[in-house]
Amino acid sequence: MKREIGNYHFVADAKTGITFRWGKTLDDNPTFAPVPELADISISNHCTKGCSFCYRDSGTNEEFMKLDDYVHVLENMNHPKYGNVFQIAIGGGEPLEHPDFLEIINETCKRGIVPNFTTNGINLTPEICKKIKGKVGAVALSVTSVDEILSDKVSMLRNEFIRVNIHYVLSAGNIKEATSIVKGDYSDKLVGINALIFLTYKPAGRASSKNIIKAGKELDGFMKAIDNKSMKIPKIGFDACFVPMLMYYTNIRPELIDSCEGGYFSVYIDHNMNVSPCSFSGDKDCYSLKTYDFYDIWQNKFEMFRQEHNNQCKNSNCKAHYMCRGCCPYYPEITTCYAY
After folding, report:
1. Three-state secondary structure along 157-217?
2. Which one-letter DSSP state was computed for residue 62?
3. Pick from 116, 189, 122: which is nearest to 153 by CA?
4. Residues 267, 235: Cα–Cα separation, whole Å
């Protein structure tokens, strides 16, 4: 995929998932994408596992997005001049418990969009893996501990040559284990894994504020481990919520890290077709596709959000101050460097 819209340029490779954007020149970073690069879509709020940290408070409620509504979302995001989004992150609830899951994957592919999804893995079967082979960019298994990584599920996916990522929810309760993971102490648990992505624990839904990451020795140790260039584990990454701390605490060059992209380059849509900057927006900055056109929301309704939150870093001592958007606009308490 290649886009040139004014001073916004975007190139993406569907096979590798690699994306690259620039502004008027290669040294410029565009303010936002006229067409979102990524859409995070929750196709349900139904899940039978009942995790205590579920930020959406999902349960056995059979709240599913209708297939017709999902198609409506895809069609609404298809810009009449510039085309559709590059990729979609399908979530829930538990996506594999959606009765139309395979049709959702197929409808996404039919429009030239790369589907990815996150799952707890419980309902993953060899049959499902065969049916999604060659259709998805990657499958992410969500865990809070290395012991929760289901090696049999990893093998199922790998047998069909499907990339497997681990989404590790990083909290105060497991940051010591996470540090050991980064140091390579659990490499045997990550065999066959494409990438390990750390997701910042947020006190939303059933999640407790007691488990948010706090500044101190444990966080310092985790950051030092990240800076260690001798890591013997797969590629690691972080969600947007962790980016401010990554910029502040590590020696990673800030220009190599994207600041929060919610509402700028990515968008969230829930199972009721409500559009917001990210999945943690709640009722704030939220507009229904049943009432508004998608590009009215994206280009006009979100403009106030972008003006308010663009480059709001208040930590002038940080080397990335000039390019960081600062603390999370919805849960500022998770951004530890904000307190400095």
Report:
1. HHHCCCCEEEEEEECCCCHHHHHHHHHCCCHHHHCCCCEEEEEECCCCCCCCHHHCCCCCH
2. -
3. 122
4. 25
Is residue 114 a contact partner of residue 18, using CB atoms and an 8 Å limit?
Answer: no
Q: Which domains does the chain have, with CATH numbers?
A: 2-335 (3.20.20.70)
Classify burial at 15, counting beta carbons within 10 Å of its beta carbon; exposed 0-12, middle 13-18, buried 19 or more: exposed
Residue with tokens 């996506």: 95
- H helix or E strand, kind and range, residue 91: strand 87-91
Which amino acid type is present at position 42?
Answer: S
Angstrom distances, CA of residue 281 to CA of 59, 286, 305, 328, 331: 20, 7, 11, 10, 9
Q: Which two tokens stand for residue 278?
A: 């990210």
AA identity, residue 7: N
Q: For residue 320, what pLDDT band results from cuts at 50, 70 and 90?
A: confident
SS3 state at 226: helix
Q: In this structure, what are the phi and psi dihedrals at residue 291, rounded to the nearest 5 degrees?
A: -115, -40
Q: Encoding tokens for residue 121?
A: 């893995």
DSSP string of 255-299, one letter each residue: GGS----BTTTEEEE-TT-EEESSTT-TTTT-EETTTS-HHHIII
**Is 314 a residue whose pLDDT tops 90?**
no
Distance CA 150, CA 125 (A): 12
Q: What is the structure's pLDDT at 340? A: 46
User: What's the pLDDT tens digit per position in 183-238?
Assistant: 999 999 999 999 999 999 999 999 989 999 999 999 999 999 998 866 667 789 99
Count Cβ atoms below 10 Å from residue 280 Cβ, excluding itself.
22
The answer to whether the beta carbons of residues 267 and 298 sit under 8 Å apart is yes
Residue range 265-281: mean pLDDT, rounded? 96
